[in-house]
Design goal:
253 residues, alpha/beta, TIM Barrel, 9 helices, 41% helix, 16% strand, binds nickel (II) ion
């Protein structure tokens, strides 16, 4: 069984094709490529059409909430007919980036949750310093098939989210020595609710911190999860990849 990278901004790498090829050499199977803004839709779909076992997410990140329009919503509907599209993301709230436009961020988030529900697609959530508002909106909109990417909440918040049926993805931060909160989350989460990601080109795992991140480094995340959960490395790979295949309804490889 191969590793699955559930969140890799391949189109943002200095060499996207090399990023995929090197991933293959490092036992990475399925790769999910999210969009941050509307400009990513075409390059992300293009990559997914050229490479097997790569899948696309369409969505507008909260950083671009002010630019979200009905026209973009229609574009998401239209492009989601593509068989390579497996979810809506990344969408959510980011109060670290800005607290000034909370209403625009919430509208953008809610609109896209509704699109996902209508299309029966999973929702991939970006939540930074906005845990409670994110949770409230997901509950209020009766969101289904939710994955909280690059989870940054407490163990209590993780438990609340898992009780609601939401899944959690962790990345390179878990390998950072001082990242106590996320290490505790990983120790306490039921492995059935956990997936792995890189969020490349950002958040490169130790010991490559500072370099451009790439899916080839996801093994370091799996290794630290195995260490924290006191599980064999291979079991972490199998469980997290099975979880991802089930969640995104893609072939398990
Ligand atoms: Ni991302």
């Amino acid at each position: 069984m191969k590793l699955t990278d559930t969140h890799a901004h391949i189109n943002m790498l200095s060499n996207p094709e090399m990023g995929i090829i090197e991933a293959r050499d490092n036992n990475v199977g399925n790769i999910i490529i999210p969009s941050a803004g509307v400009e990513d839709f075409e390059p992300v779909l293009d990559l997914c059409h050229r490479f097997d076992n790569t899948y696309a997410l369409l969505g507008v990140h909260p950083e671009y909430a002010d630019k979200f329009t009905d026209k973009i919503a229609s574009k998401i509907y239209e492009l989601s007919k593509d068989e390579k599209v497996v979810g809506i993301g990344e969408i959510g709230l980011d109060y670290h980036y800005s607290k000034e436009n909370k209403n625009a961020q919430k509208n953008c988030f809610i609109n896209q949750i509704q699109i996902a529900l209508e299309l029966n697609l999973p929702i991939i959530v970006h939540d930074r310093e906005a845990h409670l508002d994110t949770y409230d909106i997901l509950q209020q909109e009766k969101a289904k098939n939710v994955l909280l990417h690059c989870f940054s909440g407490s163990t209590e918040f993780m438990e609340l989210c898992c009780r609601a049926g939401y899944k959690i993805a962790v990345g390179g931060v878990v390998t950072f020595k001082n990242a106590k909160a996320i290490k505790e989350v990983v120790q306490n989460i039921d492995i059935d609710n956990l997936m792995l990601e890189t969020d490349c080109p950002y958040l490169t795992p130790h010991p490559y911190r500072g370099e451009e991140n790439s899916p080839k480094y996801i093994g370091f995340v799996a290794k630290e999860v195995a260490n924290l959960k006191d599980m064999p490395y291979d079991s972490v790979v199998i469980k997290t990849s099975e979880n991802a295949s089930k969640f995104f309804k893609i072939e398990c490889i």
